[in-house]
Design a protein that fits this description.
about 280 residues, about 35% helix, 12 strands, alpha/beta, single chain, globular, Spore Coat Polysaccharide Biosynthesis Protein SpsA, Chain A, 5-stranded mixed sheet
């Protein structure tokens, strides 16, 4: 392990459109930081791996012959890291200068710091919520993937607001997430039962159960072009989001509701999400 180094892991799947901007932002973001970069490509059909090989020969590239999902690909990348810290980074994010050092400072100052995440913005500069409470049967219906959340956009029953200071949160997205490598190894990485989505919430829950604190750090920032990290269709992403939600409840709340009632509710919500897509694209919802 190299002390103070940050090992950055990016998982790609047909991400060439945004990957170039992400890697370009890292040049400035890592200017004063000892770092290494690992890209795990999940069988892209575009130029994602070629972009890395031709323009960034110093990057460690892992090419999978099939899409192994986000959690498993992140764990693959983890095996190649040498840094004291690991940063999981989506390819559709551009980090602000100083972001990495601000995140690292929080971990240095608290030996019980678990997952540490920055304040992310949308491309128009507005705040993008990435922190949340742990899912329950009471708040899950107001999560981002729920149709009901469109009627109650400004409630914080599930999704947490923008905090002005560094704040302990229950769970945070792995869009940009820094953690000690030793702690990630101790946790055996992400739970690979989650193909994509909920693997980060699951990790945060396991961290909290061991007495660690997860932090939202507004002094660290970046721009997340949400939904453009992969060319996978909206329906495919919605399917995995609903499937992972069900698996999360089966893991932590293995009761009759989770086994029999929740899958029916999720199936109805998934159908509504699919049916409403044309209206969302036309700006009617």
């Amino acid at each position: 392990m190299v002390k103070d180094r940050i090992s950055i892991i990016i998982v790609t799947h047909n991400s060439a459109e945004v990957l170039k901007g992400c890697l370009g932002s890292l040049r400035e973001a890592t200017r004063d930081t000892d770092s290494e970069l690992i890209v795990v490509d999940n069988n892209s059909r575009d130029d994602s791996p070629a972009l890395v090989e031709q323009s960034y020969p110093d990057i460690v590239l892992i090419r999978n012959e099939r899409n192994k999902g986000f959690a498993r690909a992140c764990n693959q990348g983890l095996t190649k890291t040498t840094g004291e810290y690991v940063l999981f980074l989506n390819p559709d994010v551009q980090l602000d200068p100083g972001c990495l050092e601000s995140l690292k400072a929080v971990i240095r100052n608290d030996h019980k710091a678990g997952a540490v995440v920055p304040r992310l913005k949308n491309s128009d500069g507005s705040f993008q919520p990435t922190c949340r409470r742990f899912p329950t049967i009471y708040n899950i219906f107001l999560s981002r993937g729920s149709v009901l959340s469109r009627l109650f956009r400004h409630t914080h029953v599930y999704t947490l607001p923008d905090y002005p200071e560094t704040t302990v949160v229950e769970a945070a997205a792995a869009t940009v997430l820094l953690i000690r490598r030793s702690l990630m190894v101790r946790m055996s990485g992400f739970d690979e039962r989650f193909f994509m989505y909920m693997e980060d919430t699951d990790l945060c829950r396991r961290l909290k159960s061991l007495g660690y604190r997860n932090y939202f750090v507004p002094a660290a920032g970046g721009v997340h072009d949400w939904g453009h990290g992969s060319s996978s269709g909206t329906i495919v992403r919605a399917w995995y989001h609903h499937l992972s939600t069900w698996r999360y409840f089966l893991k932590y709340l293995p009761n009759g509701f989770s086994l029999l009632v929740l899958p029916v509710i999720l199936a109805v919500n998934l159908i509504l999400v699919i049916l409403l897509q044309p209206f969302r694209r036309s700006g009617k919802s």
